């Protein structure tokens, strides 16, 4: 069991000194117009006082810990054959924010930018809606977009058009709200890949709206007021995803195909609500076949009497566990025996009817046995279900969104049943709020904090430290509250 060594007073002092150096209070760097070269945390905060542009053929590198605040409704343009490399780290993100959270800012547009652009370990907040723009818009550009947090935006989050290949992976999308889609892929000469992302507490018509060939693999969709994806006129592969506790009343269905050849394989789709259908909805003019295999559909609610609705196409459903039953080879209607549905752990328990019940033509599971139904396989080499969601040690994660305004989520892992406390301190080491104090079972837990003090008063804008403590462990992280 690991533990922080010198104690909270020393940690607070060291972090406070570091933060006082990395985010000066008495000075700032005002930026506008053409920019290039390097930005480092020593120049914090970077106050954007006009539209920004990385001019043609230029490069801008933004380093870890940079804090970029837009003072008005300004755009960040990465122009023709220019490069943006926004490279934070896991422990030191880059922050893009707005001074006025209502007005917001206009996001980053890469317009025919050079292929070396990378946006990684950044946090984006308060981009406000402007038609045709997005938090990140890639216009005939191919940036790598990974390990970012997109939160509290009222805009398309990622909009891609005319790119060679889109890669969006290992990002967190949370608390965003937009009328149409969170990720929109209009056209690409190569298949787009959206993989291993988390989509949580978003509100829109569809999380992913695609007009080009797309692969949606290994993502997690939870507690969204949205449909999951709509494929329109191009092939779509939807594989190894978990979609649970979503409400797609606005989108009418969780998954929709419009004249699209779709392969929907090895997904866990559970405890969702839909206005029409949960499993699949296809309009009458769709002329492409749809193949669904090795999926689990359980605990879903829809206003229509059928999970799957289709007209004028071939819909083949096989080797799937479907509550209420559905005609097809290898289909079953039996409780899949998840580990812990209430806590979103959809691994299979020993004895699950979904083990070795997937499509025999599918690739073998990693344990070299026949494919299981659902997104998470049961490891038969050990005789127990693999539990990557069940931690081996106590861990405190970075809050999200961060910076935050109205509220933030703090996630932590518990190895064994333990008494856990989480307190918030200011930079002088004074405890200003107590968030958690109680016993927690093994697993991953999430709690919310509204930025209020112990007496229920609003705390001022600033940097705060939140500390998790058990009998044998303590860990401290920083967060930024903006009012």
What separation lies between the terminal Cα atoms?
38 Å
The count of strands amounts to 47
Q: If classified by CATH, what would the architecture of the domain at 395-481 be?
A: Sandwich
Query: CATH-wise, what's the superfamily of the domain at 395-481?
Result: Macroglobulin (MG2) domain
How is the biggest beta sheet arranged?
23 strands, parallel
Radius of gyration equals 23 Å
SS strand fraction = 35-45%
Low-confidence stretches: 1-26
Number of helices: 1
CATH topology of the domain at 395-481: Immunoglobulin-like
* Helix residue percentage: under 10%
- Average residue-wise pLDDT: 83
Give the CATH level 1 class of the domain at 395-481: Mainly Beta
Shape: globular
Protein structure class: mainly beta
Oligomer: single chain
Would you mind describing this structure in some detail?
With 483 residues, this protein is mainly beta. The protein has a domain of 87 residues: Immunoglobulin-like (Sandwich), CATH 2.60.40.1930. The protein is 3% helix and 43% strand. It has one helix and 47 strands. It has a 23-stranded parallel β-sheet that branches. The protein has a twelve-stranded parallel β-sheet with strand order 2-4-7-10-13-16-19-22-25-29-33-37, with no helix packed on it. A four-stranded antiparallel β-sheet has the order 44-43-46-47, with helices on one face. A hairpin with a 4-residue loop joins strand 46 and strand 47. The longest helix is centred in the N-terminal third of the chain and has 15 residues. The radius of gyration is 23 Å and the shape is globular. It starts with 7 loop residues before the first helix and ends with a strand. The N terminus is likely disordered.
């Amino acid at each position: 069991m690991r533990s922080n060594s010198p104690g909270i007073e020393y940690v607070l002092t060291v972090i406070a000194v570091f933060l006082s150096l990395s985010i000066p209070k008495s000075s700032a760097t005002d930026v506008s117009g053409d920019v290039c070269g390097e930005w480092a945390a020593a120049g914090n905060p970077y106050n954007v006082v006009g539209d920004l542009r990385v001019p043609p053929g230029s490069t801008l590198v933004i380093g870890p810990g940079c804090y970029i605040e837009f003072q008005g409704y300004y755009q960040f343009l990465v122009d023709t054959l220019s490069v943006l490399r926004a490279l934070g780290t896991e422990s030191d993100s880059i922050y893009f924010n707005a001074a006025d959270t209502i007005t917001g800012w206009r996001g980053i547009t890469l317009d025919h930018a050079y292929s070396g652009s990378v946006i990684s370990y950044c946090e984006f907040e308060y981009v406000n809606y402007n038609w045709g723009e997005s938090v990140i818009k890639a216009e005939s550009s191919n940036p790598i977009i990974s390990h970012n947090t997109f939160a509290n935006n009222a805009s398309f989050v990622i909009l891609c058009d005319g790119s060679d290949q889109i890669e969006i992976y290992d990002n967190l999308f949370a608390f965003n709200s937009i009328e149409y889609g969170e990720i929109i892929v209009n056209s690409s000469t190569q298949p787009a890949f959206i993989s291993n992302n988390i989509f949580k507490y978003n509100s829109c018509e569809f999380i992913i709206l695609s007009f080009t060939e797309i692969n949606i693999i290994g993502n997690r969709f939870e507690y969204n007021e949205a449909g999951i994806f709509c494929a329109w006129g191009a092939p779509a592969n939807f594989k190894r995803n978990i979609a649970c506790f979503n409400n797609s009343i606005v989108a009418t269905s969780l998954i929709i195909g419009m004249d699209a050849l779709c392969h929907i394989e090895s997904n866990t789709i559970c405890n969702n609500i839909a206005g029409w259908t949960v499993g699949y909805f296809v309009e009458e003019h769709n002329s492409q076949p749809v193949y669904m295999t090795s999926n689990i559909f359980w605990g879903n609610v829809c206003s229509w009497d059928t999970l799957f609705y289709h007209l004028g196409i071939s819909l083949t459903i096989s080797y799937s566990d479907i509550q209420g039953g559905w005609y097809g080879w290898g289909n079953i209607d039996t409780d899949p025996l998840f580990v812990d549905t209430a806590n979103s752990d959809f691994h299979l328990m020993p004895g699950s009817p979904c083990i070795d019940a997937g499509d025999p033509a599918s690739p073998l599971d990693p344990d070299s046995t026949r494919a299981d139904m659902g997104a998470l396989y049961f490891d038969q080499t050990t005789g127990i279900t693999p539990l990557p969601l069940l931690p081996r040690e106590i861990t405190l994660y970075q809050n999200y969104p961060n910076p935050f305004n109205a509220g933030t989520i703090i996630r932590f892992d518990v190895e064994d049943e333990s008494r856990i406390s989480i307190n918030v301190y200011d930079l002088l080491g004074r405890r200003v709020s107590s968030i958690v104090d109680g016993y927690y079972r093994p697993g991953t837990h999430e709690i919310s904090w509204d930025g209020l003090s112990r007496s229920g008063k609003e705390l001022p804008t600033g940097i705060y430290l939140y500390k998790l403590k058990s009998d044998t462990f303590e860990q401290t992280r920083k967060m930024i509250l903006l009012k």
